[in-house]
Amino acid sequence: MSILVVGSVALDSVRTPFGTAKEALGGSATYFSVAASFFADVRVVAVVGEDFPEEHLSFLKSRSIDLEGLVRVPGRTFRWTGEYGFDLNDAKTLETQLNVFAAFQPEIPDAYRESDLVFLANIDPDLQREVLGQVRSPKLVAADTMNYWINGKPEALRETLKSVDILLINDAETRQLADEPNLVRAAQKVLGWGPTSLAIKRGEYGALMVRKGRWFAAPALPLDSVFDPTGAGDCFAGGFIGYLANTMNFEEANIRKAIVMGSVMASFNVEAFSLDRLRRLTYPEIEARYKVFKRLAHFEDL
Amino acid sequence: MSILVVGSVALDSVRTPFGTAKEALGGSATYFSVAASFFADVRVVAVVGEDFPEEHLSFLKSRSIDLEGLVRVPGRTFRWTGEYGFDLNDAKTLETQLNVFAAFQPEIPDAYRESDLVFLANIDPDLQREVLGQVRSPKLVAADTMNYWINGKPEALRETLKSVDILLINDAETRQLADEPNLVRAAQKVLGWGPTSLAIKRGEYGALMVRKGRWFAAPALPLDSVFDPTGAGDCFAGGFIGYLANTMNFEEANIRKAIVMGSVMASFNVEAFSLDRLRRLTYPEIEARYKVFKRLAHFEDL
């Protein structure tokens, strides 16, 4: 089945304690698409500038990602520069150049209107809604957001949430969005605004999902070499939504498997800079790591 | 089977966003003993002052906790005053009065020398070793520690670790003890110093265990009402070591169940101030919550 994703395609410059990457392939739509491409057909709605390297487009095409909705316009590509400290938990943004992204008015190709699933990556909630309005009747809509929009455009975000089935968000953002320090009560409040499920990302602590009052806790894999956390959240989303698109089963048991698949894809992505680990990833490696997650979390009945 | 615990018995004054407790029953040995008493015989080595209320002793006795090693000496009982902010993650210590604890020289009663398991709660590592030397041949030794000893007495702590089977520690302390920011590498380093297992406490994010290169991730239960996190780590230890004493099976599968039992006991304890939730806790409630943890963490094979 097909997934439409709208988000950023960027050139990232990143410094971590383990090295640096300069103007490497990045962006939420990129990480999402590549992770999801292991499971389903992906269609990208995004914008790049004249300077965007052809080799990156070739790589995305090699993953069978549909780029009809990726427009190239005059100007420079969106750039992000950031660094991570020793614990690799929080990115410090050093510079954001919106460039061609500043005037981005997403218009989706006709062929994209029948997409089965939609992933609204972390962009302006007004743009998220604009894209969503152009898709005929998606079977599942998932969205990401961040503190920038929670603070800056709370009404627009609440409006978008009315049409979202699954919201992906981190725990601090959940508390912030609901203005409630207790995570359980915060989640309940957000679920009252539209989404039927919340997938709460907690970085090295894993993920929580809540749905119909039932919680699921997925672990994160303890890794002895985390090189670059950039894109982990979008790879999580890619594995998660990709697996749902592959199976088209939205029952709780299958959503739980999808959450773990998201964690699997995120765990690979942080092992190298940019998308370098996903470039050489194989499906048997994905299946093997899913089993590692199963062993990691398993305990017996009393 | 029997567990000997050495640690503090204290009077705690605590403020959280949900209320205050003044000179309430507290201390590491207290929380540990009460949690463990649901599973095994517990013997306490600790000290209190003349002012320690008789009602607290009656409560501990009502849990069948052996108090022969709890000495009462002239002076005032150890007191701790602390408060928690809105996220309830970190305690801020406002005052610590060691009082009778300052000159504590633990001497264990003859009847305690044959204890099967020993839990060295978070006290001076020299005292931990002194107590351990008085137990004939325990089948399992577990210990807790904290940043105060990691900074202040690193050699003494390393010496104690040589005799410890299971070290309970939080993730920041693991990194600090090993002087290594990556948790996996930090854990491997600490395991080279004596313990065969590390139980890494992560508060609201659950616990990790590592043993023979294999990791286990136990979730924490998302709770909608956390009133007072004081003692959660010691209740975790009490459920964990108590369950091991009850089953006397130190295979990995059983240790995993014990870790979850620790998480179960911690999840109850934070629901009320001091030991108030454990006072009215029943074993059927414990079994039911274990099942809740099982559902919380469960996902199927691919």
From TrEMBL, chains A, B:
One of its GO terms (cellular component) is cytosol. Keywords: Kinase, Transferase. Residues 20-272 form the Carbohydrate kinase PfkB domain. GO terms for molecular function: kinase activity. SUPFAM superfamilies: Ribokinase-like. It comes from the Bacteria. This is Sugar kinase. It comes from Candidatus Methylomirabilis lanthanidiphila.
